[in-house]
């Protein structure tokens, strides 16, 4: 566990969090932990993002076999030089 100290929280924000804590019958600290847990639950973990990318890359490789594609930069240069 880590300890976090928050300075200079806008009074309106702090009051809203206090009201939420009271509404949920929680301490201010527990309410903040709950808010952070909800906010981070929507963020995919880094390994899952990488795994998803690798899966999509593998699918693309299967679709196209081991075919090599030309460099589009060279094609654009040729087109501009016409």
UniProtKB/TrEMBL annotation:
<dbReference type="InterPro" id="IPR013321">
    <property type="entry name" value="Arc_rbn_hlx_hlx"/>
</dbReference>
<dbReference type="InterPro" id="IPR053853">
    <property type="entry name" value="FitA-like_RHH"/>
</dbReference>
<dbReference type="InterPro" id="IPR010985">
    <property type="entry name" value="Ribbon_hlx_hlx"/>
</dbReference>
<protein>
    <recommendedName>
        <fullName>Antitoxin FitA-like ribbon-helix-helix domain-containing protein</fullName>
    </recommendedName>
</protein>
<dbReference type="Pfam" id="PF22513">
    <property type="entry name" value="FitA-like_RHH"/>
</dbReference>
<feature type="domain" description="Antitoxin FitA-like ribbon-helix-helix">
    <location>
        <begin position="2"/>
        <end position="39"/>
    </location>
</feature>
């Amino acid at each position: 566990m880590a300890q976090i100290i928050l300075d200079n929280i806008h009074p309106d924000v702090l009051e809203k969090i206090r009201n939420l804590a009271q509404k949920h019958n929680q301490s201010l600290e527990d309410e903040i932990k709950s808010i952070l847990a909800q906010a981070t639950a929507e963020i995919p973990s880094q390994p899952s993002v990488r795994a998803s990318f690798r899966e999509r890359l593998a699918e693309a490789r299967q679709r196209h076999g081991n075919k090599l594609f030309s460099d589009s930069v060279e094609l654009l240069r040729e087109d501009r030089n016409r």
